[in-house]
Design goal:
Helices cover 27% and strands 26% of the residues. By secondary structure, the protein is α/β, with parallel strands linked by helices. The protein has 2 domains: 195 residues, Quinone Oxidoreductase, Chain A, domain 1 (Alpha-Beta Complex), CATH 3.90.180.10; 136 residues, 3-Layer(aba) Sandwich (Rossmann fold), CATH 3.40.50. Strands 3, 5, 6, 9, 10, 17 and 18 form a 7-stranded mixed sheet that branches. The protein has a 6-stranded parallel sheet with strand order 13-12-11-14-15-16, with helices on both faces. A 3-stranded antiparallel sheet has the order 2-1-4, with no helix packed on it. β11, α5 and β12 form a beta-alpha-beta unit. The longest helix has 13 residues. The protein is globular and about 60 Å long. The termini are close together. The mean pLDDT is 95. Keywords: Metal-binding, Oxidoreductase, Zinc. Its EC number is 1.1.1.1. This is alcohol dehydrogenase.
């Protein structure tokens, strides 16, 4: 089969060829619960850039060369002998983690902390290819209204945004304020999820005029440029108190300190993007009683919930399609901020 393969790390993301389009062996059924998925769409994520940079070397054990791609959807090609519930030809979306289902975390539905798991595209071959090996318990059948190439990025970008926005929505009352930092591939989904799950006023902060326009199209009530006056503008919109919830889809640069400054006393700051550091004096934590919440992708059940919102048209993805052989262009466009929404590779 054809695949876009990572052969070496590039800390500066400066090489013309970050991945190599080439022939590789097709994945095979290795376990009775395995499923081979013919890829209909593979999302291109900023985490993929971090993988290329080598940031994940100390967190995921892989041997190069290997295939990235952890946002996948397609059609069932082949099933293992113990697989029930799906059959060849079914359109499916793949939860990003493949788990055995045996550990206590799995039995509690806490997929992301499973003890026996693999993460295609992170620590195993992923979906930048024509075929992917996944597991039966990771698959969700798609309704006829949703096409694999249109929903693939929901498996990480959408699911991560949904998990954070869902957490925030449980504590947001009508008329309260929610700030979303970053209206890109994850942020534009988070805005729509907040609109679907709660009645808070949504303020979006981004440095890109195009992203702020996308935020307005997705339902933001107010948009604020992420410049030196951004925090003051948010405080002005929140009567000097800050927002009850701040969801940070950037997580690096000045976004972290500004996000905490935008969070009111007793409010919650949700970290989604990463790369930076949270630095706050302990006395400020005590006197402000702010809550800092980490977010790691999401559960299988949450992906089911998100697909329900997508099926109802309450959440839609803004995508830009690339051929699989153009994976390098997609990665470069993402790195240089030329994609508003999500990029999807189509084999």
């Amino acid at each position: 089969m054809k695949a876009a393969v990572l052969h070496e790390y590039d800390e500066t993301l400066s090489r013309d060829e970050l991945v190599r389009f080439e022939d590789v062996p097709e994945p095979r059924i290795e376990s009775p619960t395995d499923v081979i998925v013919r890829i209909g769409g593979a999302g291109v994520c900023r985490t993929d850039l971090h993988v290329v940079e080598g940031i994940w070397r100390g967190h995921a054990h892989v041997t190069l060369p290997y295939i990235m791609g952890h946002e996948n959807a397609g059609w069932i090609e082949e099933i293992g002998s113990a697989v029930t519930g799906v059959r060849p030809g079914d359109a499916v979306i793949c939860h990003p983690l493949v788990t055995s289902g045996h550990c206590l975390a799995c039995r509690r539905g806490d997929d992301m902390h499973a003890e026996d798991s693999r993460f295609p595209g992170i620590n195993a071959d992923g979906g930048y290819a024509q075929y992917l090996r996944s597991g039966a318990r990771s698959l969700i059948r798609l309704p006829s209204t949703l096409s694999p190439k249109d929903v693939a990025p929901y498996t990480d970008a959408g699911l991560t945004a949904y998990r954070a926005a869902k957490k925030a929505s449980r504590h947001l009352l009508p008329g309260e304020k929610a700030v979303v930092i970053g209206a890109g591939g994850l942020g534009h989904i988070g805005i729509q999820v907040l609109r679907a799950l709660c009645a808070a006023d949504i303020i979006v902060v981004d440095r890109s005029a195009a992203s702020l326009e996308l935020a307005r199209q997705c339902g933001a009530h107010e948009t604020v440029p992420a410049d030196e006056h951004g925090v003051d503008r948010v405080l002005e919109l929140t009567r000097g108190k800050g927002a009850e919830a701040v969801i940070d889809f950037v997580g690096e640069g000045t976004a972290v300190s500004q996000g905490l400054a935008m969070t009111r006393a007793g409010g919650s700051y949700y970290i989604v993007g990463y790369g930076g550091k949270v630095e706050i004096p302990t006395i400020d934590m005590i006197t402000s009683e702010k809550t800092i919440v980490g977010n790691l992708v999401g559960t299988y059940a949450e992906l089911v919930e998100l697909m329900e919102l997508a099926d109802r048209g309450l959440v839609t993805l803004r995508t830009r399609e690339y051929r699989l052989e153009d994976a390098n262009q997609a990665l470069k466009d993402l790195h240089h901020g030329r994609i508003h929404g999500r990029a999807v590779l189509i084999p």
